């Protein structure tokens, strides 16, 4: 893979001096320097962004549940009654 490079130059006296920097570096006078606010290096930015997205999703779900509660299902009441089996008189007489 050929990595993208930046071609930089500066004047040293009357003559330009050329040098090459990496793609994520900037030309800073006579040398290369790394950007202070590189998005890839701000891991806490991505972490807080994901936490914010999760918070918004959770808050939206909670608000939706509060504003539109699920309908209460009317369950039929169960009548539990115990019936006694009739005494089997035929088994006692043989």
UniProtKB/TrEMBL annotation:
Keyword Signal part of the UniProt annotation: yes
A cellular component annotation (GO) from this entry: late endosome membrane
Transmembrane segments: 43-63
InterPro entries on file: VOPP1
Source organism superkingdom: Eukaryota
Compartment(s) where it occurs, according to its Swiss-Prot or TrEMBL record: Cytoplasmic vesicle membrane; Late endosome membrane; Lysosome membrane
Chief location: membrane
Keywords linked to the UniProt accession: Cytoplasmic vesicle, Endosome, Lysosome, Membrane, Signal, Transcription, Transcription regulation, Transmembrane, Transmembrane helix
Membrane topology: Single-pass type I membrane protein; Single-pass membrane protein
Signal peptide per UniProt: none
PANTHER family xrefs: VESICULAR, OVEREXPRESSED IN CANCER, PROSURVIVAL PROTEIN 1
Record family assignment: Belongs to the VOPP1/ECOP family.
Protein name: WW domain binding protein VOPP1
Organism lineage string: Eukaryota, Metazoa, Chordata, Craniata, Vertebrata
């Amino acid at each position: 893979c050929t990595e993208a490079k930046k071609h930089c130059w500066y004047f040293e006296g009357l003559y330009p001096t050329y040098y090459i920097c990496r793609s994520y570096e900037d030309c800073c006078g006579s040398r290369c320097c790394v950007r202070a606010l590189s998005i890839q290096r701000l891991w806490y930015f991505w972490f807080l962004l994901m936490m914010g997205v999760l918070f918004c999703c959770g808050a939206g779900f909670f608000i939706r549940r509060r504003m539109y509660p699920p309908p209460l299902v009317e369950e039929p009441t169960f009548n539990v009654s115990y019936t006694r089996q009739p005494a089997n008189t035929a088994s006692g007489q043989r």
